[in-house]
Specification:
Elements: H1 2-14, E1 39-54, E2 64-79, E3 82-93, E4 101-112, E5 115-121, H2 139-142, E6 147-154, E7 158-168, E8 178-193, E9 196-210, E10 221-235, E11 240-252, E12 263-274, E13 279-288, E14 315-328, E15 333-344, E16 350-365
Antiparallel strand pairs: 1-2, 1-16, 2-3, 3-4, 4-5, 5-6, 6-7, 7-8, 8-9, 9-10, 10-11, 11-12, 12-13, 13-14, 14-15, 15-16
């Protein structure tokens, strides 16, 4: 742990400016354009995705996600502080007949001043703003809906998001175990003057698998991932240097240890320059004995790859070069294209992923012309 802290401090002092991927344009984020005027509203969210991995390594699968997610929903705003929503989430994967998944959307949303309580379908996924080694942003495709309870507290200088995601409910005499995850994201602005902003994000993600009414004789699993960061942003007339730096940890709190590693850590650093044309980001990951339940598999020290499941490597050193282009076509519709090659510094090989995302979000009033 000591050498990772020293490495983080050294790099910050030498380079000072790092950043990770900005996924704001991909968020469902039903909170952004929700009206506080009493009435009935219809909201449409459409997310088209093409996410392709040309991977041949021993840790992450080479696969492709190609399809779209459609989420129409109705919202009744009862008062400026209370609304209730009902709808459906549909995922269609191209190349496969029928709908891949169908989930109902049910939600109650209470908010007053800077505080918000959501129960039901959460404002989740990439909206939690967790770093990629802890939370894989592919989950916006594979696990698009989170159900549970969420608290959000936000003001001009800080943002707090606390949530519980009940991933798998079980009933008495269940053949499987229940799965629950919960997290916290807190970011506080430390300094803001002129074009420079410095902030500190803190993240926790807990995963538990178990239960007392399941029939399999299986051990409980309890995993904690956490991250402690420092972010920088400096705006020039035609470009922005932006930064998020993380010291990320992993700890297995299970009574019976089943994972390859009991604890581990990593440093996640990125250097980015955002222009009108694209966001150019260089990312570096140095991990040791690191594992996560929801993170991108390429960062893990233990493989989940289909032909090498369980293969492990104590230290992982990865260098990414990312080009991310955002095209805001209108207020409600945007296109994002990405190319993300990387090099495994311990096993030199050049591999890449490429993506194209089309996102549409709009809210319509049904109670006025």
């Amino acid at each position: 742990m000591k050498k990772f802290a020293l490495l983080l401090f050294f790099v910050l002092m030498q380079l000072g400016l790092f950043a990770q991927i900005d996924n704001t344009s991909l968020e469902n984020n039903f909170l952004s354009n929700q009206s506080n005027t009493r009435g009935l509203y219809f909201r449409m969210y459409n997310f088209n995705y093409m996410r392709n991995y040309e991977y041949f390594n021993q840790f992450a699968d080479g696969l492709t996600y190609f399809g779209n997610i459609l989420q129409p929903e109705f919202t009744f705003v009862q008062s400026p502080n209370l609304s209730m929503s009902a709808g459906v989430n549909l995922r269609k994967d191209y190349g496969k007949k029928g709908i891949y998944s169908t989930q109902p959307i049910l939600r109650i949303d209470y908010h007053r001043n800077n505080f918000r309580l959501i129960n039901g379908a959460l404002n989740g996924n990439v909206a939690h703003r967790l770093p990629e080694p802890i939370y894989n942003y592919d989950r916006i495709i594979t696990d698009n809906i989170e159900y549970g309870t969420q608290f959000i507290l936000e003001n001009a200088n800080s943002h707090l998001d606390v949530w519980l995601n009940w991933e798998n409910m079980i009933y008495k005499i269940s053949p499987v175990q229940e799965k629950i995850s919960g997290g916290l994201h807190y970011q506080k602005n430390l300094f803001k003057k002129g074009n420079l902003t410095v902030a500190a994000p803190i993240d926790f993600l807990v995963f538990h698998q178990g239960g007392q009414i399941d029939t399999p004789d299986r051990s409980l699993i309890s995993i904690l991932n956490s991250s402690f960061g420092l972010t920088f942003s400096y705006a020039f007339p035609k470009a922005t240097l932006h930064s998020e730096n993380y010291l990320i940890t992993y700890k297995d709190f299970s009574f019976t240890k089943q994972n390859q590693y009991i604890q581990g850590q990593g440093v996640y650093l990125n250097l980015g320059v955002k222009t009108k044309m694209a966001d150019f980001v260089m990312s570096y990951w140095q991990g040791e004995g690191f594992q996560s339940t929801h993170g991108a598999p390429i960062f893990s020290s233990v493989s989940s790859q289909i032909n090498n499941n369980g293969f492990h490597q104590d230290e992982r050193s990865l260098l990414f070069f990312r080009i991310i282009s955002e095209f805001p076509i209108s207020e409600n519709f945007s296109i994002s294209s990405r190319i993300e090659p990387y090099i495994d510094l311990n096993n030199p090989a050049f591999e890449f992923s490429n993506s194209l995302f089309l996102t549409y979000r709009e809210n319509f009033s049904l109670t006025k012309k």
